[in-house]
Design goal:
The protein has 118 residues and is mainly alpha-helical. It contains four helices and no strands. It starts with 15 loop residues before the first helix and ends in a 9-residue tail after the last helix.
Length: 118
């Protein structure tokens, strides 16, 4: 059995009528002359590799320029002062007893849900 020569279309298929219209068993095969010519506005294959190599080289340059060891932070006092002003007034430190008192108060005010009736 040959997959192309002996292939059959299922007559129940919704595309069966379309297949029957497009199949031309006696049609001539295309020749190599029928293939389109290579376009003139396409760069040569070698240039694709050269462009890829340039991108890889640029990537390595970027990685080297942004490595952890290339960054330093100096003179941050002005930045810190502005950030503190933007953040608003500094709040007093939380006293651990206040947190526990608040939690105790919330537990005392909480009302458990009624039991589920069965």
């Amino acid at each position: 059995m040959h997959p192309f020569r002996d292939a059959q279309v299922d007559p129940r298929s919704p595309i069966a009528p379309e297949v029957a219209k497009t199949v031309r068993p006696g049609a001539a095969y295309p020749t190599f002359a029928a293939f389109p010519k290579v376009p003139n506005d396409v760069r040569p294959h070698k240039q694709y590799g050269q462009a890829a190599a340039k991108i890889e080289a640029d990537a390595q340059t970027l990685i080297a320029a942004t490595a952890d060891s290339t960054w330093t932070i100096n003179d941050t006092g002005d930045f810190v002062a502005k950030a503190r002003i933007d953040a608003g007034p500094e709040l007093p430190a939380v006293v651990p007893g206040d947190t526990e008192a608040f939690a105790k108060d919330q537990k005392a005010r909480a009302t458990p849900p009624p039991p589920v009736k069965r």
